[in-house]
Predict the structure.
Amino acid sequence: MKYQLVIQFSQELEGGFDRLINIEDELDKNLSINAEVDGHDFGSGQMNIFILTDEPLETFEQIKKILIRNNNLLNEAKMAYRDIQKNNFIILWPKDLKEFEVI
């Protein structure tokens, strides 16, 4: 897969790590074959879920629907993607976000 899409939540998210794992499982079950859940990390104030995909915009649309169904977690998320060969992220959500980094 050519791209890495990252879904990022604050460690302050209600339910914390257990909720992160539940979201990851939901994504793993419901994303199309063009996307693959590639794990998570937790620390430095962030919780991240990593998705590998060849279709980052299509995958983003699928993720939005899944997060909305899960108590509207879309409002708690930040999302961006990058070419696996590069370091700079292209921000997807929220639309007014100016910087995105994985610590």
Notes: DSSP finds two helices and five strands in the chain. The first strand starts at residue 3 and ends at 10.
